[in-house]
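Give me the 3D structure for N-terminal methionine N(alpha)-acetyltransferase NatC.
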Amino acid sequence: MSAEKEEQDAGTRELQYVQYDGSQEATYLPAIRQLISKDLSEPYSIYVYRYFLYQWGDLCYMALDPSTNALIGVVVCKLEPHRSGTFRGYIAMLAVQEAHRGRGIATKLVCMAIDAMAARDADEIVLETEVSNTASLKLYERLGFLRSKRLHRYYLNGNAAFRLVLYLKKGTAGKRPEDAGGGSGMRMEEYRGYGAPPGQESVMMGPVS
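Predicted structure for N-terminal methionine N(alpha)-acetyltransferase NatC (209 residues):
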């Protein structure tokens, strides 16, 4: 084992990895919003987080500092039937504190999410990431994700994205239309102001991973 790999493994072991607990929303949700918002030019509405966490809280995993209980990393996902006929997982958000990056934390969180969705009989898992986000692309492609499509001007800031897909079952690729998006057909940029009362919508912009 290389010294770099040993250092990454040690870094992931030092943290506590837990599944999101909705009963502790008052503690976790503000921390999740704060961490993810650091990578966005404008924050997601709280209703977007609740949309995912209320329905698929068991597909949200967090990395915590065991000494302070501070949130170090988080992945937020969903899993639902897709119009193509597949049971599709979707990685909506992934974030790790900048000071803790390069330690394998994001990889560990994504692997936990993949295992959870596979255990629930997912056919495939998809996500979008900016074409310029080389770190994100390397992470997902190392885990077996494939680039299925380039989405021009996908984000509200005009940047393009790659749609990545991980096939979990043989034959899934033949079912999936190329123009299909996330599980509900909505992309992350279209959750702008999701569920918000009139006048309280929030513009979302930027990468989700």
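The helical segments are 3-14, 25-37, 46-56, 105-119, 134-142. Let me know if you want a second pass.
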